[in-house]
Amino acid sequence: MKIGFVGLGAMGGPMVGHLLAAGHTLFVHSRRRTSADAAVANGAVWVDTPRALAARAELVFTSLPGPTEVEAVMQQTDGLFSGFKPGAVYIDLSTNSPAMVRRLFKELATIGVSMLDAPVSGGPKGAASKKLAIWTSGGRQTFDACKAVLEQLGDQIRFLGEIGNASVAKLVHNCANYGIQMVLAEVFTLGVKAGVDPLTLFGAIRQGSLGRQNIVDRMADQFLPHEFDNPAFALELAHKDVTLATDLGRQASVPMRFANMTLAEMTEALNNGWGKRDSRVAMLVQERRSGVDIRVARDALAGLIAAEKR
Predict the structure, then answer these.
(1) Options 170, 193, 240, 309, the catalytic residue
(2) Residue 180 above 90 pLDDT?
(3) What does CATH list as the number for 213-309?
(4) What are 289-309's pLDDT values in tens digits?
């Protein structure tokens, strides 16, 4: 297949290598010409402008830092938009704005070009080893036609439906990831300043329930099926634990912003009369505040998790 690829940085460079190894003809363009040296040495063809690249390719990928760069490559003079041939497919691998993705989808449709948004998760190491999750959305027929190529880039390819859904999922994932990092930093500094050796503390946490479980899978226990009345651990007891932790933070002069926010949410849940319910019932405070009702049947959750483990 004749494939165009724009953006040969830490993520794009290795992915171009995989496509070359699979036997595709690659036309490449990058902001810095030197970023493409390795790909050109391995058989890729350098093209001076995105427009010229799009004119030579059946399928075009972009792997760029974000919306600003995607917009520039798409709409600038000699940009991709002016070079696409009718019937071509465009796949954006960037972490992008869902609103921009949906707008581009509509604009490209007017010139006969199909689009998928397909943000990736796994970092440069995953790009090099092909251990990438690639969340994809857009037209189902377009996805089916491109799935084999995507499988040459990653090991977890998932179709999420309408255009922009994949970008939403990527933003949810990344925001959760960095939020969890900050919470761990907060509570770990508490533990160390309160007198526990860092390595000892790390070893202890790894053996607790948090360390032993996939933290995302834990959402399937109570929150997603909305089953809070057979508690694994009651909210009133969890509230006591977080109260003790924030008290310790004050004693040790450790700022506990995230923990105090958590305590405030749990206190609101207690004031709703939910103290005897499972501790994860406090997650409903945010759900109700957002005006959404999140419920997934338990058998559907079990089926998805089992399928992923096979």
Answers:
(1) 170
(2) no
(3) 1.10.1040.10
(4) 889 888 889 898 888 888 876
Q: What is the pLDDT of residues 138-171, one digit of tens each?
A: 999 999 999 999 999 999 999 999 999 999 999 9
**Domain ranges for the chain:** 2-168, 213-309
Q: What local confidence, expressed as pLDDT, does residue 310 receive?
A: 58
| Level-2 CATH architecture, domain 2-168 | 3-Layer(aba) Sandwich (3.40)
**CA 186, 191, 194: angle at the middle one, nearest 5?**
120
List Cβ neighbours of 27 (8 Å cut-off, separation of 6 or more): 2, 3, 4, 5, 44, 45, 47, 53, 56, 57
Reported for 9-12, long-range contacts at CB under 8 A and 24+ positions apart, including other chains, are: 9/35, 9/63, 9/65, 10/124, 10/127, 11/63, 11/93, 11/120, 11/123, 11/124, 11/127, 12/61, 12/63, 12/93, 12/127
**Residue 170 is a catalytic residue:** yes
